[in-house]
Amino acid sequence: EEEVVTSLASPIPYSEVDWTRPGGVIEDIADWIVSMAPRPNRRMAVMAAITFVSTICSRHVSTPKGGSVALYTICVAESGAGKDAPMKAMTTIAKRSGLDFLIKSDKITTSLALEESLKNSPVQLIPADEVGKRIFAKAKSRKASSYESEMIQTLLSLWSSNSSTFMRTTTKVE
User: Fold this and answer.
1) What angle do CA 18, 24, 28 make, to 5 degrees?
2) Helix, strand, coil % over all residues of the chain, rounded to 5
3) Full-prediction pTM beyond 0.85?
4) CA dist 162 to 17, 90, 108, 156, Å?
5) How far is 75 from 43, CA to CA, in rounded Å?
6) Which among 118, 28, 114, 43 has a CA at the least distance from the CA of 85?
7) Closest CA to 168 of 125, 117, 108, 106
8) How far apart are CA 42 and CA 132, in angstroms?
9) Distance CA 107, CA 109 (A)
10) Long-range CB pairs of 90-96, under 8 A, 24+ apart, other chains included
11) pLDDT 10s digits, 132-169
12) Residue-wise pLDDT tens digits, 68-92
């Protein structure tokens, strides 16, 4: 049998897409997150669902041109906007699905800690609050350790090599 590859002959204009209703399992997960959230936020629920599904698929699915579906997602919102429920929901779904091994600590704030963690588990979901303060602000601080200041470069290197082999950028000093 010959494999038939289909594509959209005429893409739907961006403005005509309801990104809060993507359909399929992503919409089902987002609906569940919204239904259980004390402060429902549909956009963040969809983001969490996309993040969760991309994590599961990251080593098994690629884009048509061989790219990875791995994502770094960051939700920016003011206090009380409903960020907490989607972050917690990803952990809950992972546990209920037997995929809790994918969830990693949000205490990873240095390049060395991230690289050590990836050595043992190359696919990870790290729900973390206050990423701006805990990672980006530290990395730009004059008081940052070399491992803290290298974090952004390590994330960029990981992204560009996420469909190939990542070569460590830091080494542990004994």
Assistant:
1) 90
2) 45, 0, 50
3) no
4) 29, 21, 19, 10
5) 9
6) 43
7) 117
8) 22
9) 6
10) 90/48, 90/51, 90/52, 90/125, 90/127, 91/127, 93/29, 93/32, 93/52, 94/52, 94/125
11) 666 767 777 778 777 677 777 777 777 676 656 665 55
12) 777 888 777 888 888 889 999 999 9
Helices (H), 61-110: 84-96
> Residue 22: exposed, middle, or buried by beta-carbon count in 10 A (0-12, 13-18, 19+)?
middle
Determine the 3-state secondary structure of 103 from DSSP.
Answer: strand
**Of 95, 62, 75, whose CA–CA distance to 162 is shortest?**
62
Measured CA to CA, the distance from residue 89 to residue 161 in angstroms comes to 28
Alpha-carbon span 100 to 4, nearest angstrom:
36
